[in-house]
């Protein structure tokens, strides 16, 4: 990886992956590409930034050629709840964008990182200890794009030799950039409400266990997978990875250890609850551990503490943390 393009750079993952890649490879070697959102100041000021619509293959190709890109972290996509609201647009962006990236990569010899998700699984999937290789059958448009994306990436690897690699991310928790309309967003929103209001109204019901991960682990996973020895990879797209699994009430209890007067109630959103109920509770990530040494660093307790400290500093609230 010498010259890297990151699509979806202004999103939840991109806004943290770009600085990590710039630290590692040099700011002139990482081109951050966003589309609709106004880019965060640091993305523009601390390195190269371009506006890019991933549904426009010609535009991707010209960025790749101009900057002599050899690796693309293709993050641009609509999340699960937004995709259910506009499935046609989700197909266009999520599948069309990936297809364009793969075609440009085939022609320009780029490696590709593609983030799949717990959303690539569906109601037929074993929900506990979800195997690496198992029945998927997602019933959301987001999940259909993810499972198709995994297959398409594998196809481009076996048919054309494009070095495609990916992970199935769980819900991602971070304090820098909010996720844009996913089912696991409650696990981010809860921290903002805990710090600012000491209360939160959760849209998933008690007992809804889902895999989760703190963003520093997610960023490190992407980089480590792309740097790993190809000879050790028996899988490519996409590796189960997880760091923790909890239900909303357990996350609330973890926050209450630091903010004792925090309280949570529930108003269930049936659309997002149905999506969550079709996803794994806890994936088995043994293949990732074995094939490229995946190892999470943050558990629920460590993530909660770090989130509260950093968000309190960011939002300028008096901490209330005990
Ligand atoms: N966090 C994503 C979502 O909820 C799943 O990958 O849409």
- Percent of residues in helices comes to 40-55%
From the structure provided, what is the oligomeric state, counting identical versus distinct chains? Answer: single chain
CATH H-tier superfamily of the largest domain: NAD(P)-binding Rossmann-like Domain
Q: What ligands does this structure carry?
A: serine
Strand neighbour order, sheet with most strands? 3-2-1-4-5-7-11
The number of distinct structural domains comes to 2
Question: Which outline best applies?
Answer: globular
Give the number of DSSP strands. Answer: 14
CATH class of the largest domain: Alpha Beta
Using only CA atoms, what is the Rg? 19 Å
Number of helices: 12
Q: Segments where pLDDT lies below 50 for 5+ residues?
A: none
Strand percentage lies at 15-25%
Instruction: Give a short account of the largest sheet.
Output: 7 strands, parallel
Q: Care to give the gist of this entry?
A:
Helices cover 43% and strands 17% of the residues.
Fill in the keyword field for this structure.
12 helices, 7-stranded parallel sheet, 322 residues, globular, 14 strands, binds serine, single chain, UDP-galactose 4-epimerase, domain 1, Rossmann fold, alpha/beta, 3-stranded mixed sheet
Descriptive account of the structure:
- The protein is α/β, with parallel strands linked by helices and 322 residues long.
- It has two domains: 4-170 and 215-240, Rossmann fold; 172-211 and 243-281 and 297-315, UDP-galactose 4-epimerase, domain 1 (Alpha-Beta Complex), CATH 3.90.25.
- It contains twelve helices and 14 strands.
- The strands form four sheets. A seven-stranded parallel β-sheet has the order 3-2-1-4-5-7-11, sandwiched between helices. Strands 8-10-12 form a three-stranded mixed β-sheet.
- Strand 1, helix 1 (14-25) and strand 2 form a beta-alpha-beta unit.
- The chain is globular.
- The N and C termini lie far apart (44 Å).
- The mean pLDDT is 96.
- It binds serine.
- Serine is lined by residues 79-80, 117-119, 142, 169, 171, 182-184.
């Amino acid at each position: 990886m010498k010259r890297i393009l990151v699509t979806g750079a202004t999103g939840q993952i991109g806004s943290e992956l770009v600085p990590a890649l710039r630290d590692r490879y040099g700011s002139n070697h990482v081109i951050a590409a966003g589309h609709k959102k106004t880019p965060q100041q640091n993305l523009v000021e601390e390195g190269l930034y371009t506006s890019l619509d991933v549904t426009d293959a010609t535009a991707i190709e010209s960025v790749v050629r101009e900057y002599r890109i050899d690796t693309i972290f293709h993050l641009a996509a609509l999340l699960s709840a937004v995709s259910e609201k506009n499935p046609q647009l989700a197909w266009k962006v999520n599948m069309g964008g990936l297809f364009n990236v793969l075609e440009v990569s085939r022609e320009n010899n780029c490696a590709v990182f593609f983030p799949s998700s717990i959303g690539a699984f569906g109601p037929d999937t074993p929900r506990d200890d979800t195997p690496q290789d198992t029945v998927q059958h997602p019933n959301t448009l987001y999940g259909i794009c993810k499972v198709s994306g995994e297959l398409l990436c594998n196809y481009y690897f076996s048919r054309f030799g494009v070095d495609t690699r990916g992970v199935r991310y769980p819900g991602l928790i971070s304090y820098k950039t909010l996720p844009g309309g996913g089912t696991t967003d409650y696990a981010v929103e809860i921290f903002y409400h805990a710090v600012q209001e000491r209360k939160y109204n959760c849209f998933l019901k008690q007992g809804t266990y889902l895999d989760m991960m703190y963003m520093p682990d997610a960023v490190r996973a992407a980089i480590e997978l792309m740097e790993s020895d190809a000879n050790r990879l028996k899988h490519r797209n996409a590796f189960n990875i997880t760091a923790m699994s909890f239900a909303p009430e357990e996350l609330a209890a973890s926050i209450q250890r630091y903010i004792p007067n925090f309280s949570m109630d529930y108003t269930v959103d049936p659309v997002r609850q149905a999506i969550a109920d079709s996803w794994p509770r806890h994936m088995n990530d043994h293949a990732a551990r074995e094939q490229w040494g995946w190892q999470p660093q943050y558990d629920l307790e460590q993530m909660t503490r770090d989130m509260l400290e950093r968000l309190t500093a960011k939002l300028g609230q008096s901490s209330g943390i005990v």
